[in-house]
Specification:
- The chain is mostly helical and 361 residues long.
- α5 crosses α7 (110-127) and α6 packs antiparallel against α7.
- The protein has helices at residues 3-20, 25-38, 44-48, 54-71, 74-86, 90-104, 110-127, 138-149, 157-170, 180-205, 219-222, 228-247, 252-265, 271-277, 280-298, 301-313, 317-331, 337-354.
- The longest helix has 26 residues, at 180-205.
């Protein structure tokens, strides 16, 4: 049996497992990568290359940077500031939360941002005597964090994973704000929607009772004591990271890991906390995803899929790009974003290479 056929069979099995949800995503993608290796669709070196690539290193480093927001007490400081300056009006508080969440998500994972803001919202709501409703703040703050994360190449694990697959296949890299050229318009529209008709619609449609306050409410404001020296170090490290990402040609994984090491050495976060806060599941998905994609590419399975797509719709790059985006959007509603990326990215890369078009778009 041709290696391309074997790779396509493995791809089909992985897709079924991801859609069914009966097998954990990390096990499915890791299993797909191992199957590619065991069937000689790719070499062990190709399969494991993602674990030592820029993407995995960036995730580990930026996870530690994000965790330091809690251990230095900056999250507590943000909670105090929000209570003092935004709690007089629910809409004002909501817009302030979404703006700050979007800004922080430029640099740290949106899930970490949401974890930071939920106890802050609980705390302010519990002290507002009903003026601030949590049901009006959770959803838009979460959306703002997700949208903000799409503006840079280092925040969301899906973007980092895409960067790793791009780099391993073509050798291309992207700059810190390259994703913003595509997503900035959507982010602006999102903020306009929340600040105008979105708030009114939520006020009208969210007619359910306010959920019971969590037992730990208030921890967002009165949690970890702020350490001004360590908080200052974290801010300085973050600024230097941004400078490194935007204005130097240093590898972004090297920058992220250097930042993590500096924060550990200066006591901003302990080694134990740093390793506990790294999302190892995401690291494995990203690393295995690169290896899985390598099997699709090196066996020619990607070219088979590309030929099928081109025979179906032609060689117009814009139309092909739109179709791939629609497929990715559909799959991301059935499975985790990273899983959808692992399925669609090899197809996108193969199609672009087949028609002689730049892979990046």
């Amino acid at each position: 049996m041709a290696s391309s056929t074997i790779a396509l069979i493995i791809l089909a099995v992985v897709l079924v497992c991801l859609v069914s949800g009966k097998v954990p995503v990390v096990v499915t993608i890791l299993g797909g990568m191992l199957a590619m290796t065991l069937t000689n669709c790719c070499t062990p070196a190709q399969a494991f290359s993602g674990f030592s690539g820029t993407a995995a290193m960036m995730i580990m480093g930026m996870n530690v940077v994000g965790a330091a927001f809690f251990t230095t007490g900056i999250s507590t400081s943000i909670g105090h500031w929000l209570y003092q300056h935004g709690a007089s009006s629910e809409k004002r508080f909501l817009l302030t939360c979404t703006l700050l969440a979007g800004i922080l998500a430029l640099f740290i994972n949106p899930m970490a941002v949401i974890s930071l803001f939920m106890p802050i919202i609980d705390s302010v709501a519990s002290q507002s005597e009903g003026k601030i409703r949590r049901k009006m703040c959770y959803l838009p703050t979460g959306i703002a964090a997700i949208y903000g994360g799409t503006l840079t190449s280092v925040s969301t694990s899906t973007m980092v994973n895409a960067l790793g697959m791009l780099e391993s296949t073509t050798g291309q890299t992207i700059s810190f704000f390259t994703p913003a050229t595509m997503t900035l318009g959507g982010v602006v529209l999102m903020y306009i929607a929340i600040g105008t008709f979105g708030y009114k619609l939520m006020d009208k449609w969210f007619d359910f009772e306010e959920p019971p306050m969590p037992t730990a409410a208030g921890s967002g404001v009165s949690g970890q004591q702020v350490n001004k020296v360590k908080a200052g170090i974290l801010v300085a490290v973050l600024v230097l990271c941004i400078i490194g990402f935007v204005w130097t040609k240093l590898n972004m994984g090297v920058i992220a890991l250097t930042a993590a090491c500096v924060l550990i050495l200066t006591g901003c976060i302990t080694t134990k906390d740093a390793f506990q806060k790294i999302s190892w599941t995401t690291v494995v998905i990203v690393g295995a995803g690169v290896g899985f994609g390598a099997g699709i590419q090196y066996t020619g399975a990607g070219e088979v899929l590309a030929n099928a797509a081109i025979n179906l719709v032609g060689t117009d790059p814009f139309l092909l790009c739109v179709i791939i985006v629609l497929i990715a959007t559909f799959l991301s509603n059935l499975m985790a974003n990273n899983a959808a990326l692992v399925i669609v990215a090899p197809l996108a890369i193969a199609v672009a290479q087949k028609i002689g078009y730049d892979v990046l778009p």
